[in-house]
Amino acid sequence: MALLSIAFLPPIEYFVILAKYSVIQIEACENYQKQSYRNRCKIYAADGVQAINVPVVHENGTFKLPITQIKVDYSTPWMTRAKRAIDAAYYSSAYFEYYRDSLYAILDSKPETLFGLDLELTRYLAQKCGIKTDIGLTQDFLPGTPGEDFREVIHPKSANTILEDNNLKKPYFQVFSQKYGFLPNLSVIDLLFNEGPDAFSYLKPPSEGNDSI
Asked: What is the pTM of this model?
């Protein structure tokens, strides 16, 4: 079993962990932390890396509230901007049309909380990537075991060796790679839209078995 924090359209390294372990517990008992993947992701746009941020409602000392109580701020047009950015970045990718409507349906349902939005998107993307890992939620704040606690390892402001450790620091096709070269560890939607059903083969070669629980 491994521990992960919740994340919005998580990076590829996050899904490497999902594919590697038979059971994942997502941290549901922490307080919200800003400037993390909990409310942001990175995509490959025509002019390079582009960030997409989900605004949250600032109430009652937002950053002291449990992550499950943080509400998404739908009073701004962030979702319209996000979908336009994704459309512009991936409309010419091989598999975008296969996933676009179902992905946007989750966004359009406007889950009240950030945790609910992130969890629904993560489970959807895991399914589309062919990952069958059991994804559960923590009931208490658990102490981490070195090598299996990735809650703060996967963070936009700190580097880690997850891709290297799993022999996955390798390129795949990207729409704008001829212009800017290959960009690693973007949101997993970059991999899914470009590789489709082959996303699982990239994340976890078939010759490798899942861990024992």
From this structure: 0.93
